[in-house]
Amino acid sequence: MRRIIAVISFPILLAACGAEPVWAPDEAVAAAAYRPASEPPSITLFTMVNNRSDEGAHSGLMINASQRVVFDPAGTWWHRTVPERNDVHYGITPLMEHFYLDYHARETYRVVAQTVVVSPEVAERALQLVEARGAVPKAFCANSVSATLRELPGFEGVGHSFFPGKIMDRFAEVEGVEAVTYFDSDPHDHAAKLTSGQKSTNLYKVPGYAPKP
Fold this sequence. Notes:
- By secondary structure, the protein is α+β, with helices and mostly antiparallel strands.
- Helix content is 27%, strand content 22%.
């Protein structure tokens, strides 16, 4: 997967998403809890962008608070080692972050990741908001992401939208934002990649991936 540093926005529109309610048990969520000690609290907006039309296809959030989670509203990614509660995925280690990005980036889509360092209080509030939101209906991914962001200090300008591209453009105006764009030449159909990820017996031996220390 190639990484290109970018702090730019793209004129893109909404496409559909899909998901269903799930609820991992308390012990699984507690056991999976992960927070990188060397990284400050932060919020990352993921926007999946169609490479042919430049339209937005999906929005998600990675929240690095007391633990790091991915809020993937109405999304289709999952991993057998990552407990999920209604679109909130726990245990987002560097490897699971890689799996998430690698699943979404392909020949037809790129992933724009925009990160803002925030206070511990803002990060924790973001975590509380996504945990309380519940399962998100199909095609409401951007709506739920923007509804979460606009309740956080410093992100009020993101406003409310059903369009991932508009959210991405407004997020780019938040003070201190840094962006990375992920490209991949994998085929559009990623069903096999999602399945193969579940079968890995040594998850840290992934071709081309070196976990962060």
